[in-house]
Design goal:
Elements (H helix, E strand, L loop, with lengths): L1 H11 L2 H11 L3 H6 L4 H12 L2 H11 L3 H12 L5
Helix pairs in contact: 1-4, 1-5, 4-6
Length: 83
């Protein structure tokens, strides 16, 4: 879950990207804040990155992880594990 939270911080550091996240996920700011400890919300964050490779690569670089680590975190959340 920590990697997903870090990814969310990176996404929210850019207003147009954050607005796109909200638009594409159907979340609103309150729902996002309220769902920070919910695996489904964190999966949506990582799905957002997985669905747009340029952001996935930039986020991975900014967080000093590999894109594969972000995808693995997403898979772990899908399986009910903490990522």
């Amino acid at each position: 879950m920590a990697l997903a939270l870090a990814a969310l911080g990176w996404i929210c550091s850019d207003q147009p990207r954050a607005e796109r996240l909200l638009s594409l996920t159907g979340l609103d700011p309150e729902g996002l804040r309220g769902g920070l400890d919910e695996p489904g919300v964190m999966r949506a964050v990582l799905d957002f990155l997985a669905d747009h490779e340029p952001d996935l690569l930039k986020c991975a670089e900014a967080l000093a992880v590999t894109p594969e680590e972000l995808i693995a975190a997403r898979s772990a959340l899908r399986e009910g594990h903490q990522a």
